[in-house]
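Follow-up to my post from last week.
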Amino acid sequence: MSSRKSKSNSLIHAECLSQVQRILRERFCHQSPHSNLFGVQVQYKHLSELLKRTALHGESNSVLIIGPRGSGKTMLINHALKELMEIEEVSENVLQVHLNGLLQINDKIALKEITRQLNLENVVGDKVFGSFAENLSFLLEALKKGDRTSSCPVIFILDEFDLFAHHKNQTLLYNLFDISQSAQTPVAVIGLTCRLDILELLEKRVKSRFSHRQIHLMNSFGFPQYVKIFKEQLSLPAEFPDKLFAEKWNENVQYLSEDRSVQEVLQRHFNISKNLRSLHMLLMLTLNRVTASHPFMTAIDLMEASQLCSMDSKANIVHGKSPALFFKLWFLKL
Amino acid sequence: MAHYPTRLKTRKTYSWVGRPLLDRKLHYQTYREMCVKTEGCSTEIHIQIGQFVLIEGDDDENPYVAKLLELFEDDSDPPRKKRARVQWFVRFCEVPACKRHLLGRKPGAQEIFWYDYPACDSNINAETIIGLVRVIPLAPKDVVPTNLKNEKTLFVKLSWNEKKFRPLSSELFAELNKPLESAAKCQKPVGTKSKSAESPSWTPAEHVAKRIESRHSASKSRQTPTHPLTPRARKRLELGSNPQMSQQTSCASLDSPGRMKRKVAFSEITSPSKRSQPDKLQTLSPALKAPEKTRETGLCYTEDDEASPKRCMILRTRISAWKTIDIKEERILTPIRGGQKSSVMPSVILKPENIKKRDAKETEAQNEATSTPHRIRRKSSVLSMNRIRQQLRFLGHSKSDQEEKEILPAAEISESSSDEEEASTPPLPRRTPRTVSRNLRSSLKSSLHTPTKMPKKSLKPKTPRCATPQIRSRSLAAQEPASVLEEARLRLHVSAIPESLPCREQEFQDIYNFVESKLLDHTGGCMYISGVPGTGKTATVHEVMRCLQQAAQANDVPPFQYIEVNGMKLTEPHQVYVQILQKLTGQKATANHAAELLAKRFCTRGSPQETTVLLVDELDLLWTHKQDIMYNLFDWPTHKEARLVVLTIANTMDLPERIMLNRVSSRLGLTRMSFQPYTYSQLQQILSSRLKQLKAFEDDAIQLVARKVAALSGDARRCLDICRRATEICEFSQQKPDSPGLVTIAHSMEAVDEMFSSSYITAIKNSSVLEQSFLRAILAEFRRSGLEEATFQQIYSQHVALCRMEGLSYPTVSETMAVCSHLGSCRLLLVEPSRNDLLLRVRLNVSQDDVLYALKEE
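User reply:
Got it. Predicted complex:
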């Protein structure tokens, strides 16, 4: 009887666990704009105000979001755009153009992409794209036609902004910034980059046209906040179907965060990198150890995952070899 | 083509009057007078040498006008041909569209130009002459009369030689004046036997009948296009569309708004309708019918056999459509009598408003037709163009064919008019007589074979110019500023155009004087303007141009054309030619071709034009290895005829010395101007002039910003941006307490810091423990080695020692490498690509002091 009960219990657990893993993995892998913002409220406010002004007042702007990798630049802009689009009068009044320096490797491709995303090809008719020069003058003319009050604002988001600065003559950047500084179609140019010396990459006339607004994301949180993030990232949301299980899970997470050895692991990880992505990696590995028979995470799981993370790759190679091969390698090196 | 002459003979007979005079040198006989007799009509037209004649052309509405110089018979070929030599006149619509602006005014509706172009073929078939026309020469000071009673009177005031319009010379003027009296005499109808001549009130009808006939004969005798289009537009049509398509579209467009237009246009015409003798026209109608069959077959020679049934079908549908139209017209139209088309009776009185209306309409139609040639030749556009043309044609026909329609059975008319349209399809060279006499005159030979009165073929087929591109407009209006701070922000935006440019008065005056003097002197010149970014170079030039354009409108300075190109807005330096050409003439061409065209335009003598002012922004980007672009830009103004003023803008003061070859910089000349960076007081003045009486800033706050910016760059854009940011910070902080909406020093200080502070130190402060210790290790290694560069291996050993000292866990190589590349991606370090592994070299991208300062803080 009791064995049957435990069996059904474990079945329920298994179901719940698969759900938990799905939810948490989604959280770790995708930078969903639903997650909370950690310590970037000021920057967020700045950015969303700026976007709103472009959308509602038709004020042209340009801004750079600068921060090291994994500091949440993309999350910030996605968050801000999502909030902007939730405003009713904005949603159909704003055009977005997303460019990535790794994809649009030169201005020609970038212009085509802009034309495509602005749905301007239908204006061009059957002859979709002419030469590069035609395309540029076409786009410039299109953007020049508008004015502050009547045209639909366009938000340009340039991911990996520093790569655009390597384009020939920085034509695209010059023109985008020039539009943002002249009485044409209202635009907001938002650049995302991890390079701190980005302004030195810009040519002086391009730099002069840039408004010099910079939003820095520096992961400026301390360890206590890091632990808080760890807790929040692992906690199940209130709308989880099995309330009982969720409560138990969250209790366990709370207990974990107060555990000494867990804190040690986290401290070590924090010392190496403040990057939230590396924390996600750690949690992902821990989560994978959770099974039906072992439904709640323990400190040991975390420690083992941490070991996996901080494994020295070269030492690994050497450890994996047979002694003979090892000697061979040693011999060769000598 | 044997069937043409036979048909021709039945329609209209041309006969010589008087005895032939044998020309000794050339073996042909010349005559003084010719008689044109039309079958089915009792009138005869006598045409004498020296009179002005209308000659059939592509365009039925505007037949060619010429002065008859010589009549002769060419007997070199077995079938003798009547030939004539003429002096051409051109109508304004025959002038190439790109040259029309050279006239500099609106042409009169009936103005023609003496065609002073010897290369044009003046030898025509005498049987293409339609009739006489009255041409009145005007002295240069005379004004071309508008609203004329008689449409058949044309005026000549200027001559046109394919390059420029010139006033008529005095002897030419006298010569043109001479034949007027004789012409008036002989234009009297000779057909006294016609009953219609009995009462003077009938004469107009009679002439109209005659006119109809000649029209018909014209259209039958050869397959002349009879569109009321300008020849130019017609030509495009021929090139761009196959005949079948144009016919189909013509059918399709029958029920298009053209009819409506016509209805409106004619419904007000209320002159009483007059009936002319039906017998005359009835004799005409069978004759009309008869050759139609032959034409049908005659047409087919251009087409495949299988195409002909289709054609017939099209014809049939058209006929029915025409019928409906005619019925409509008979109901609506009360045709105008008299003045229209009658070259004979200038005395016929017409109600002025009718005439005016017609004139207006005609010019409108003409404008419509003539404004189109520079268009696209895409399929769809050709289709729509054809539709428009078709409508125009109907307009024209309804006017010219009214008389016919009134009398003839509707079907007959429709057939005949559709015939005309059928006949219009085969392409014909422009203004070349149908049959060219060979070896008439050896000198003429070449010009005969290459009729040079073709429109200039330089116009390349256009790539489709899209309909005006535009970002879609917003559905919700932009919010207007609500608070003082928002208003201030709007005014402080760089894009806001101030009424005046403070602190640049001297520069403004200099540039203005320079350009104005060049405009007044009708010469050209170059000016080089330099200055660091954000000092108002482009803004000042724009302001100058705005003022000059206003002055030009007020006639203070001669009119000029202003063109602007920006080196940064080009994909490639040579594109500058394309842009200039496109803005100058609307033409599109490849870079090389555009360069040639521009060189031709600016460097060849005798191309009168208004002065062109060219602004070249970001000049340094037009640098090429050969410097040919800069050379050309500065060379063109040196040509006297070019009348080109080039204003160039660049950032660097010594650009001419630094990058230009001597021959280029020498052409640039010494007219240089340098825009100094703004001083702090100037910046302050700019800010306060923008804000005006708006009280949003504390004076000290403005001054602080101005001083900061002046110390750093003197860039006005920066200044405005900082102030704008300061208003935002103020607004943000204001929400909490109820402080007055004034930007204080603290706010502007914060904005300045935000914009100018280096982010390196904060980045180091916020980096992780391991990253910081790695930076320390680098410093230690640098100190140890005394070099500014170290390999990863060296730094790693230092790093391990440091970690041990600080009680951190032992860092593995992988971890340290990750830290290193992380710092490298932020550009705190400069690192080699990581494939070098342990041997990759590392440098600091920040000064060591900064790193020490940032690390010490903790």
